[in-house]
Design goal:
20 helices, Ubiquitin-like (UB roll), 27% strand, single chain, eight-stranded mixed beta sheet, five-stranded mixed beta sheet, alpha+beta, BirA Bifunctional Protein, domain 2, Threonyl-tRNA Synthetase, Chain A, domain 2
Length: 648
């Protein structure tokens, strides 16, 4: 039998027979390692302990102490254990597919009766029985005919369709958790007992079309979350409870910010309060960009297919575009256009007008560009995931030599904006060259080094994402963490030499010849819609005063105070404060509760004592006490607190 050489993390090498499994490797090192091992990394690929190794490779063995692999396997095995539990309780249920997702997993089932909360409790109890039985997990590779015959005998049509979708020549791997079998790529744990029985929770049930196709059967999807220990699970469930309280859709109703309706799926109807936040944020970004050297433009919403063909979007992105047919002059053939899904090709058109010199670079073109992209209805989520949105979009046209300095300048700009908006905890991910790419190795080396150096020179570390760059260039992703610890990827910077080439952008260099500029796609907020949703949830609706749509409500305690209420309100408005009077014939406690629910930062209560003393009783959002102050004093405080950060 042929020999292979395995290289361990410490540099040591050992020879084995070809076909050795990681389980056998672990057994040869020590019995304790063999017992603790859960999977391996073979040349960086996650590898089941039962899979044979047939070539020289680098190997490392994972245990439950290795967070990434451990959590992936725990959640993956729980998906199978849950499916087994469901079929043991209800044998007629058809199982379909169940992948790992953020913090847990889901599995889709075809069942006539809807699952209930009581059913979830029953399923959890059965899952714990399976885990405590410590039943072995094993795997085999089957041929296509055998697999199809097996699932036909088991009356599992969904599994047969999955097999038909697997490319010819690709292994069909079967896994058993005890006696229960499922089609799966793997890897998995050694036995069910390696799953912590007290660190998972089934959270809810939702409808889901088979394979996301609305023409196919509606299935029931059970979601679960899982962690390595009970404390981590408890912390996550607490976070979910807090997230539910902060849900931007709930707060959007309470604060009267926006609504969505079925006649315009994925589009936002902004109410006055919500539009106030939107325009305040846009005005802030406009001022900041102007100071940072950007010129603002505006480009068309409907653009002929010829431009999208030239840019490459018609071929690669058409399924996400809204196509508009125009019958111009009753022509025999209608003209095909598209609502723009992004602004980039249009910005190149502006760059291409007139002759550009190296002295014009870098040229920073910004647009609050309204875009439209088709998103499946099941993916839509409040204002976080929509079909119509506006980006704080900009493109920097520069030379290769300017990539690093422009990137550093952008990181500093983004850092300052995030700090102004209350986000000081964020990190950078650098996505590098994928296997399929264009350009020379030298150009990739230069671009990746420029982005990495820019991060370092701006004072920030970065996390590498090997192979995650676009086919034409590397990119930076900026991930911020909100008040309850959730991560949001918002800002981006993408190096793109491809689009200027496709759309024939050029400038005259110092040598008098034409050269291609590099295009840096960049955004800080991403889309206004999504970022406002993030702001609302992170601040739990209690926005900083300068962003609060309703800053002050002046409420009367008795009707005799109405005239003074109107006087105070007028003075606030004249001082630039967004204020309104509430002189309804309601009790003051009712008014305070209502406006607190609407997240109004300041409520002024006015009774006859305040009228006589020319004062106001101030109640700040989230505080139970009131403070009586003069109108002049509170006006000065509000003007200072309500001024946007960049104007202070």
């Amino acid at each position: 039998m042929s020999q292979i050489t395995l290289t361990f993390p410490d540099g040591n090498q050992r020879s084995y027979d070809a076909g050795v499994t990681p389980a056998q490797v672990a057994e040869g090192i020590s019995k304790s390692l063999a017992k603790a091992a859960i999977s391996a990394q073979i040349d960086g690929k996650h590898w089941d302990l039962q899979w044979p190794i047939t070539r020289d490779a680098k190997i490392s063995l994972n245990t439950l102490k290795d967070d990434g692999p451990a959590l992936e396997l725990i959640r993956h095995d729980l998906a199978h254990i849950m499916a087994r539990a469901v079929q043991e309780i209800w044998p007629d249920v058809k199982v379909t597919i169940g992948p790992v997702r953020d913090h847990g997993w889901f599995y889709d089932f075809d069942r006539a009766e809807p699952f209930t909360p009581e059913d979830l409790g029953q399923i959890e109890a059965k899952m714990k029985q399976i885990i405590n039985a410590r039943e072995p997990v094993r795997t085999e590779v089957w041929d296509r005919v055998r697999a199809v015959e097996h699932y036909m005998a088991q009356n599992e049509p969904y599994k047969i369709e999955l097999i038909e979708r697997i490319p010819e020549g690709e292994d069909l791997r079967m896994y058993w958790h005890g006696h229960w079998q499922d089609l799966c790529r793997g890897p998995h744990l050694q036995h069910t007992g390696q799953v912590p029985a007290d660190a998972f929770k089934l959270t809810h049930v939702a409808g889901a079309y088979w394979l996301g196709d609305s023409t196919r059967p509606m299935l029931q999807r059970i979601y679960g979350v899982a962690f390595k220990n009970r404390d981590d699970l408890k912390a996550h469930l607490t976070m979910l409870e807090e997230a539910a309280k902060r849900d931007h859709r709930k707060l959007g109703r309470e604060m009267d910010l926006f609504h969505m309706q079925e006649e315009a799926p994925g589009q936002v109807f902004w109410h006055p309060n919500g539009w106030t936040i939107y325009t305040l944020l846009q005005d802030y970004m406009r001022r900041r960009q102007r100071v940072d050297g950007y010129v603002e433009v505006n480009t068309p919403q409907v653009v002929n297919r010829k431009l999208w063909e030239a840019s490459g979007h018609w071929e690669s992105y058409q399924e996400n575009m809204f196509i508009v047919e125009v019958d111009e002059d009753h022509a025999r053939e209608k003209t095909l256009n598209a609502l723009k899904p992004m602004n980039c090709p249009c910005h190149v058109q502006i760059f291409n007008v007139g002759l550009k010199s190296y002295r014009d670079l870098p040229l920073r073109i910004a647009e609050f560009g309204s875009c439209n992209r088709y998103e499946p209805s099941g993916a839509l989520h409040g204002i976080m995931r929509v079909r119509g949105f506006t980006q704080d979009d900009a493109h920097i046209f520069c030379t290769d030599e300017q990539i690093e300095s422009e990137t550093k300048k952008f990181i500093e700009f983004l850092s300052s904006v995030y700090a102004d908006l209350g986000f000081t905890d964020w990190r950078i991910k650098l996505s590098t060259r994928p296997d399929k790419r264009i350009g020379t190795e030298e150009s990739w080396d230069q671009a990746e080094a420029a982005l990495g150096n820019a991060c370092n020179h701006a004072g920030y570390d970065y996390e590498l994402q090997p192979g995650e760059g676009a086919f034409y260039g590397p990119k930076l992703e900026f991930v911020l963490t909100d008040a309850i610890g959730r991560d949001w990827q918002c800002g981006t910077l993408q190096v793109d030499p491809n689009l200027p080439e496709r759309l024939d952008a050029s400038y005259i260099g110092q040598d008098g010849a034409k050269h291609r500029p590099v295009m840096l796609h960049r955004a800080v907020l991403g889309s206004f819609e999504r970022f406002i949703g993030i702001l609302i949830e992170s601040h739990a609706g209690k926005l900083p005063l300068w962003l609060a749509p309703r800053q002050v409500v002046v409420a009367s305690i008795v009707s005799d105070a109405d005239d003074y209420v109107e006087e105070v309100t007028a003075a606030l408005i004249m001082a630039g404060i967004r204020a309104e009077a509430d002189t309804r014939n309601e009790k003051i406690n009712y008014k305070v509760r209502e406006h607190s629910l609407g997240k109004v930062p300041y409520i002024f209560a006015i009774g006859m004592k305040e009228v006589e003393d020319r004062t106001v009783s101030v109640r700040r959002l989230g505080e139970n006490r009131t403070e009586t102050v003069s109108l002049d004093t509170i006006l000065a405080e509000l003007k200072a607190e309500g001024t946007p950060p960049d104007l202070r």
